[in-house]
Write a structure and sequence with these properties.
With about 775 residues, the chain is α/β, with parallel strands linked by helices. Among the domains are: about 230 residues, Rossmann fold (3-Layer(aba) Sandwich), CATH 3.40.50.300; about 140 residues, no CATH class. It is built from 26 helices and 24 strands. The strands form 6 sheets. It has a 6-stranded mixed sheet, sandwiched between helices. Strand 5 and strand 6 form a beta hairpin. It is globular. The termini are far apart. The relative contact order is 0.11. The N terminus is likely disordered.
Length: about 775
């Protein structure tokens, strides 16, 4: 782990009479807050949702400026007399690390070691220092063995540790964390806390926002926030602030000797009546996975039963929930829910899906992905309206659902303007309003304060009294045991097995690189070579040239050690579209001998030849592009792009910024795609016509996702801006490049091969 700064200030952060508003002073998120944090202290911020904890943490991290007050961070007077000083902020942030609640938006690249290197690169450190920082930081979070893996495809626990590693590599004097364990299982949470304990021992100042009393055990101070004010500042270790009563109570000690939970299987289910949920020999694997995340799983749940489902991050709990709700298809096995065959042995048809939506409700893990209407009331009404109820009945359902969650006052608010906790309550209300017979809830109380959790628990007891069958995914064992008739655990594959990208790229850098020769090519040489070969394909006009192109493409595919079937599966929609466009030549080309005529349309032998040629030509171009993208990480692509554009920097072209935008686009386009899919699933789960309606209804439903996708894009952009600030990136700075390209003999061989191919096409 990097050594601590030798001259840390005695005061890490000092805030005097701070006020902050998100609505230009109509209300105050922080109102006259004063706080001093000494260097080396471990301070926990606790309190209910909306009390101002996260806002205060952002101010301490130097990521935003207040509307009033005075702030000094690490001896830098960043705000004096309400006037922010950009230079002082810039200097202070070089010594402050920040870890967000959702690490996904904090991970900026698709290679772990490159992500850890990003901050030190912005600090302009020497490459040998960066190499040392990467090694020490990954060792500190126990992730050295997966340094080449894609962090965006890791489990939640690994992503959070990766985000912490990125901060440690910058050697911060102060580390600010906003609920870093909110979505983690017990094991992953313990891993994060061990890292914080180690940082505390070496003297790093830690500011930790948390809802978990156990996480305050080693704090020097616990600061309780209420309605934008500091309600109490309690000094001393081993104390926890109760968000409801304000009474300080010692947290319970960790229990490492608890009885293991039974593994989910048929043997753990009492067979008294006909099950309302029946799963038999279920197997599911991700599209690019070699090992199944769910393997031959069987279980059943009785009507009216409440089952709490636990398990490690990556064990397949959320995937199982989506399978039960017909939002994903298993590789094999059968599922029956509420008497409706979801998979048996074929997928349910539209009518069965419509019936399933009426009887099975689904609360997603991330509530912001489940809200899409203009107001909370409209969002809650979405499901009942799809059930064909009258306006009066719909309004009655809405009032009842809002009352059950105690959020009647939010009815006319936009769901996109709510806090995370309020969004979760609104999302649950929207599902409860459908009055399902079976309710599947994925982490319904994550990130909620004690009062909000109590509301959810009260709701669950009410639903149980009404006979609703519930499957609740949770990481809180005490909650599971208090709410459920049975507490069961998903079989736990190792994290490496549950993350295909980690399994494939787990080997750290060493003298022996087991990747394919195409993977190992210098990305600059590879980019130029592939582009040249792809453009040359457009010159293919004869069978001999086509055969040469096919031979070249197959040779590159073999050298890349790629599975042809899996590769083609990723691009088959594009290939199909190109084939349809190329086949238009059948009726457009008029030259040659007519083969047959149909009214005004005539097909000739020249038309057939050209159609086949164009189809094959476009297919080869697409396949070569897929090979390039499969064997080259987005990070390598953007580094190569920047290197190739570098000479144009002399003419004023901002090559570094252009390359960064390209890198972030490649990094976040899959995230936005997944979020769009989640919104579509949210509509479908509440009986929306996006999957079961007529063509016009489905088009209308698709148009309804535009606003929430746009809101999600803005949210990601805001978080991305904060992530770049936290990593000290600024426009125009001179950055060190950790990864330096060095062409080798294999690059020369590849270049010669591409040139030979181009010459062959020209000659033929």
């Amino acid at each position: 782990m990097p050594a601590n700064r030798s001259h840390s200030p005695a005061i890490a952060a000092e805030l005097n009479h701070i006020r902050f508003s998100y609505d230009h002073g109509a209300s105050w998120a922080l109102d006259d807050v004063s706080l001093t944090i000494r260097a080396g202290e471990r301070v926990c911020l606790v309190g209910p949702n909306g009390s101002g904890k996260s806002t205060l943490a952002r101010l301490i991290a130097g990521l935003t400026a207040p509307d009033a007050g005075d702030i000094t961070l690490l001896d830098h007077h960043v705000v004096a007399d309400v006037t922010p000083n950009a230079d002082e902020y810039r200097a202070a942030r070089r010594g402050i690390g920040v870890v967000f609640q959702n690490p996904e938006d904090q991970l900026l690249t698709t290679v772990l070691e490159d992500d850890v290197a990003f901050g030190p690169e912005n600090l302009g450190l020497d490459r040998t220092v960066i190499a040392t920082r990467i090694r020490q930081s990954l060792d500190a979070v126990d992730m050295s063995s997966v340094r080449r893996a894609d962090p965006t495809r890791m489990s939640g626990g690994q992503q959070q540790r990766a985000a912490i590693a990125g901060m440690l590599a910058m050697n911060p004097a102060m580390l600010v964390l906003d609920e870093p364990t909110a979505m983690l299982d017990e094991t992953a949470r313990a891993e994060v806390m061990r890292v914080l304990d180690a940082l505390q021992q070496r003297g790093t100042t830690i500011v930790h926002v948390t809802h978990h009393p156990n996480e305050t055990r080693h704090a020097d101070r616990v600061i309780h926030m209420e309605s934008g004010h500091i309600a109490e500042d309690a000094s001393g270790q081993a104390t926890a602030q109760c968000p409801e009563t304000g009474v300080l109570t010692p947290p319970p000690a960790a229990d490492d000797s608890s009885t293991p939970l039974p593994v989910l299987s048929n043997s753990s289910t009492p067979q008294n009546n006909a099950p309302i949920i029946r799963v038999s020999h279920l197997t599911y694997r991700y599209a690019d996975g070699e090992r199944p995340v769910i393997d031959d799983l069987s279980f059943s749940i009785q009507p009216g039963e409440t089952v709490a489902l636990m398990g490690t991050n990556g064990s397949g709990k959320s995937t199982l929930a989506r399978l039960l709700c017909a939002l994903a298809r298993p590789e094999s096995g059968t599922i029956e829910a509420a008497g409706i065959p979801v998979v048996r042995p074929k997928p349910a048809h539209r009518k069965q899906i419509a019936q399933l939506r009426r009887r099975v409700g689904y609360v997603m893990q991330h509530p912001e992905q489940q809200l899409f209407a203009e107001t909370v009331a409209e969002d809650v009404a979405y499901g009942p309206r799809n059930q064909g109820l009258s306006d009066a009945d719909v309004q009655q359902r809405v009032r009842e659902a809002l009352a059950l969650l105690h959020i009647e006052h939010l009815a006319d608010r936009s769901p996109f303007d709510l806090s995370g906790g309020q969004q979760r309550l609104a999302a649950i209300a929207g599902v409860v309003a459908c009055r399902p017979d079976v309710l599947v809830m994925d982490e319904p109380t994550a990130s909620l304060d004690v009062q909000a959790k109590a509301r959810i628990h009260e709701l669950l007891h009410t639903l149980k009294e009404r006979g609703v069958t519930m499957l609740i995914i949770t990481h809180d064992r005490a909650e599971a045991e208090s709410l459920a008739d049975r507490v069961v655990r998903m079989p736990s594959p190792s994290e490496a097995q549950s993350s295909p990208s980690i399994q494939r790229d787990a080997a750290p850098q060493s003298k022996t690189d087991h990747r394919s020769p195409v993977h190992q090519l210098d990305p600059r040489v590879k980019m130029v070579g592939f582009l040249a070969a792809m453009f040359t394909m457009f010159a293919v006009n004869t069978p001999a040239q086509l055969a040469t192109g096919i031979a070249f493409t197959l040779a590159v595919m073999m050298a890349g050690r790629l599975n042809p079937i899996r590769l083609l599966a990723t691009i088959h929609p594009i290939l199909a579209l190109m084939a349809v466009m190329s086949l238009c030549n059948l009726v457009v080309v008029r030259t040659g001998t007519p083969l047959f005529t149909w009214g005004p349309l005539s097909v000739t032998d020249d038309g057939v030849t050209i159609a086949v040629l164009y189809t094959c030509r476009f297919a080869l171009v697409i396949i070569l592009g897929a090979i390039f993208l499969t064997t080259t990480t987005p990070t390598a692509i953007t580094d190569a792009f920047e290197a190739l554009l570098h000479p144009f920097g002399r003419f004023g072209l901002h090559t570094q910024e252009i390359a960064l935008v390209m890198s972030l686009a490649l990094r976040f386009i899959p995230t936005l795609t997944d979020e769009t899919r989640s919104i579509i699933d949210a509509q479908a789960a509440r009986g929306g016509s996006i999957e079961t309606g007529s063509l016009s209804q489905r088009i209308k439903a698709m148009s309804a996702i535009i606003v929430p996708v746009f809101a999600g894009t803005l949210r990601h952009a805001d978080n991305l801006s904060l992530a770049l600030d936290a990593r000290c990136y600024e426009e125009g700075i001179v950055r060190t490049h950790w990864r330096v390209f060095a062409p080798s003999a294999r690059d020369a061989v590849f270049a010669v091969t591409v040139i030979a191919y181009i010459v062959a096409i020209v000659v033929l």
